[in-house]
Write a structure and sequence with these properties.
The radius of gyration is 22 Å and the shape is globular. The chain is built from 14 helices and 17 strands. Helix 2 crosses helix 5. Helices cover about 30% and strands about 20% of the residues. With about 425 residues, the chain is an alpha/beta fold. The protein has three domains: about 160 residues, no CATH class; about 160 residues, 3-Layer(aba) Sandwich (Rossmann fold), CATH 3.40.50; about 60 residues, no CATH class. Bound molecules: iron/sulfur cluster (2 copies).
Length: about 425
């Protein structure tokens, strides 16, 4: 049985038209002092301090970059508590702020005039984006300012609105609700990178979105076009988006700026707009809860730091509490399983999927090669698995596991239910050790 898989049920029907619930009034908000990319950090406020929306409250430190932490409400710092981080699955220290529901804005958050914006240099843009703590808001968490630090000539900035993961509609919602701000974020990015051209890539099944963007773009003189791309997985992986939207083939492992392209997710572009025009860090994001295990799946606009338990309650809780639940943070293909729902919204938390737990028995590999045919980067997952199980480091490295983009297709397609993607992740760690 040989099967190449790229079409997967997208589970978005009914969700793209659905209502967005504005839930911005959590009583307590949680801000991690560490995450996957920045495992250490400290706060710069103390218990009892009064903080405002947009105020710097700490910094996370990583091997290659730091991330500022900002409050998303005004209120009182009441301490630090250990809590699960939705994206990493680790238990981390979180600063807790008690919301006073006044939403007083930090004095540093004020609009920038057009004249001030016109004078911004590339370095200014880099500093603005860095200070706002922006990182890939599509879920990658990669620090955005690094993409602007290139010396290469950039021909085109590509706005990635493809969001190919099934079920997730977070980028779709921001395109539907704030398209002009995305366009402005794209224009600022083009200016910062001196790129003459912008392209917005969205799925061809959303022609109405294209019409909305086209109508907005008619008011701007910049060279920006909307490109509709086919609906398959992993179309949203940046190399694939570049190929579909621009016709450029970027080899895996090569930086896209080598080909004159910088790719920015649409939610990240919205963040750039806020940082440039309003001197505001990201304080809220779209987030959805879906899956057969939740009573009423819903989409939200929430403040960063909001406990997910509050949102689960708004969804009417779990279907049949007696059935154990499987919780996945992120999409069903690339998301991470999490042990419980006591976590909070971070900048990169796009969604929670709640499934009733099914015990799927893993079978022996039947050498069908479906995983090999389906891999978008031409790896041989089954061979990597065998080399990893044999603890053959050299062979795992030779089979190039580091090129794996962790898209989940090999696990999805495997008839023997072997968790190949998880094995790829383990194999990567194995050759690093
Ligand atoms: S998870 Fe990795 S090995 Fe599996 S299909 Fe995707 S890229 Fe290929
Ligand atoms: S690992 Fe799964 S998909 Fe790959 S060859 Fe074996 S049975 Fe087929």
């Amino acid at each position: 049985m040989i099967e190449k898989t790229s079409k997967i049920p997208d589970g978005k029907k009914g969700r793209v038209e659905g209502e967005i619930i504005d839930y911005k009034d959590a009583k307590y908000l949680f801000f991690p002092t560490a995450d996957l990319k920045c495992p250490a950090g400290e706060t710069c406020v103390f218990d009892g301090d009064y903080v405002k929306v947009g105020q710097l409250i700490g910094t996370r430190h990583g091997a290659f970059f730091d991330q500022p932490i900002h409050s998303t409400v005004s209120g009182k710092v009441i301490g630090i508590e250990k809590k699960l981080h939705g994206s990493s699955g680790d238990v981390v220290d979180c600063l807790i702020i008690e919301n006073d529901f006044k939403y007083e804005l930090c004095t540093s958050c004020k609009p920038r005039t057009k004249e001030e914006i016109d004078k911004l240099t590339k370095d200014d843009y880099i500093n603005i984006i860095k200070d706002s703590g922006l990182s890939g808001l599509g879920g990658s968490g990669f620090p955005t300012y690094v993409k602007f630090q290139t010396d290469k000539t950039i021909d085109v900035v590509l706005a990635n609105g493809v969001e190919c993961e099934p079920i997730i509609v977070s980028d779709y919602q921001i395109m539907k609700n704030k398209p002009e701000r995305i366009v402005k974020g794209l224009i600022y990015s083009m200016k910062a990178l001196k790129a003459p051209r912008g392209v917005i890539a969205i799925k061809k099944k959303y022609p109405k979105l294209k019409e909305e963007f086209d109508a907005i773009l008619a008011n701007y003189e910049e060279d920006i076009t909307v490109k509709l791309v086919a609906d398959y997985y992993p179309q949203g992986w940046e190399n694939e988006t570049i190929k579909s939207a621009l016709g450029i083939k970027v080899p895996v492992g090569t930086l896209t700026n080598e080909y004159g392209v910088v790719v920015l997710n649409v939610t990240t572009l919205y963040g750039i707009y806020r940082a440039v025009e309003r001197k505001m860090p990201i304080t809220e994001r779209f987030f959805s809860i879906a899956g057969e295990g939740i009573n009423e799946p819903k989409s939200f606009n929430v403040r960063i730091g909001t406990p997910v338990k509050d949102l689960i309650a708004i969804c009417g809780g779990y279907v049949d509490e007696d059935i154990p639940k499987e919780l996945v943070v992120g999409g069903p293909m690339m998301g991470n399983n999490i042990t419980n729902d006591d976590f909070f919204i971070s900048k990169t938390t796009t969604s929670l999927i709640v499934n009733n737990q099914k015990i799927e028995k893993e079978l022996e590999c039947i050498s069908c090669a479906s995983c090999v045919y389906s891999c978008p980067v031409d790896l041989k997952p089954v061979q990597i698995m065998n080399a990893y199980k044999a603890r053959d480091k050299e062979q795992v490295a030779t089979l190039d596991v580091n090129r794996c983009i962790e898209c989940g297709l090999c696990s999805y397609t495997c008839p023997a239910k072997i968790p190949l993607t998880e094995i790829m992740k383990q194999a990567k760690r194995f050759i690093k050790a």
